[in-house]
Amino acid sequence: MEHLPQRYRQLFPTLQTHTVLASCSQSALAEPVSRAIKDYHDSLLLMGTNWNEAIEKTESARNEFAKLIGAEPNEIAIVPSVSDVLVTVASSLSGFRKKHVVYTEMDFPAVSHVWQAQSDYTVSVIPVIDGGLHLKQYEKDITDETVLTCVPHVHYRDGFVQDVKAIAEMAKKKGSLLFVDAYQSAGHIPIDVKEWGVDMLAAGTRKYLLGIPGMAFLYVRKELADALKPKSSAWFGRNGFDAAYATGARRFQTGTPAFISVYAAALALSLLNHIGVSRIRDHVKTICSDARQYAAEKGLQLAAQAGRQPGLVAIRDERASETAALLKKKKVICAPWDTLLRLAPHFYNTKDELRHAIDEIAAVFSAR
Ligand SMILES: Cc1ncc(COP(=O)(O)O)c(C=O)c1O
């Protein structure tokens, strides 16, 4: 089971000196991704222009993300961040008569920020009950007046995983579109937008997708994309310099992509597709389940894990940021959020690294 880290760890220089367990925030940088970033920089520095190559890399990143989620390249838009995705999606729904949106208490705060700012819409927020989101509540809150239901595939705080296919079926039955925020799942949990019946899905590149900030992908089902007219759309969303919307999801684009992030993403996604996300899921699941058991033996309190296949170990800690800073001094990198210390491994991490982080956390707690 330690086959993946054995094979790929040498690609990540930081792992020789640090225990890096923060993929839910920023994954470790692979040497080939670092080289891709340098290629962009060097081509500008040494050759004066790299526009055509950068456009090719943008298409290559688009193709790789499409492959990762089972979509067609023309169904993928390249945008600066997931927050920007939400703004552009909201701007595309004004043609609908229905003005009710459903989202959940597990959505990342940006979701509520964007929908609360849309004064034309009423919203319903699906509550978290017993640490989870429940289909019965979706059934109740999605109505015939709901234009869009927004759900996270995986919760950013504790790793709760939702059954997207079941939610998609319910949304469809009620006539609502479904938007999935897959920022916490893409790269370590398999996604199949066609099989699940998802209308729109987004993920940024700096977490489990092994890239850097500045870029996100938006999938829009092709028949739907061609019917929508996003108000947040500009020349990268048009047919050349023409005013007509581009076909497919490209119409959701605005201006020049952050090419340096695009170079990183094209390489990183080809690496992930080469390894295969199912293998990554199996590995991460195994080492997380060992870590949860080990943490419990050490007397650490875990956040509720009502979800299936959790790939995150979230430890309760009122002083999480302070603990993370102490761990950083010991070269253990984790991702604090509020009152949780999140350990988020990827395919390059081992069971022993997670155990080492847990030992260090237990040592900090016992010194208090
Ligand atoms: C699930 C989820 N959605 C959205 C975001 C926000 O992404 P961005 O900063 O690209 O807008 C984050 C960032 O941490 C996230 O975890």
Strand order of the largest sheet: 2-8-7-6-5-3-4
Number of domains: 2
- Strand tally, please? 12
Work out the helix count.
13
Radius of gyration: 21 Å
Residue fraction in strands: 5-15%
| Second CATH tier, the architecture of the largest domain | 3-Layer(aba) Sandwich
Regarding CATH, which class of the largest domain? Alpha Beta
Helix content: 40-55%
Question: Overall mean pLDDT score?
Answer: 96
Silhouette: globular
SSE run: HEHHEHEHEHEHEHEEHHHEHEEEH
Ligand list: pyridoxal-5'-phosphate
N-C termini distance: 36 Å
Q: Could you say what the CATH topology of the largest domain is called?
A: Aspartate Aminotransferase, domain 2
Explain how this protein is built.
The protein has 13 helices and twelve strands. The protein has 368 residues and is α/β, with parallel strands linked by helices. The protein folds into two domains: 3-29 and 277-366, Aspartate Aminotransferase, domain 1; 34-273, Type I PLP-dependent aspartate aminotransferase-like (Major domain) (Aspartate Aminotransferase, domain 2). The strands form three sheets. Strands 2-8-7-6-5-3-4 form a seven-stranded mixed β-sheet, sandwiched between helices. A three-stranded antiparallel β-sheet has the order 9-12-11. It is globular. The model has no long low-confidence stretch (mean pLDDT 96). The structure holds pyridoxal-5'-phosphate. The site of pyridoxal-5'-phosphate (PLP) has 12 residues, from helix 4.
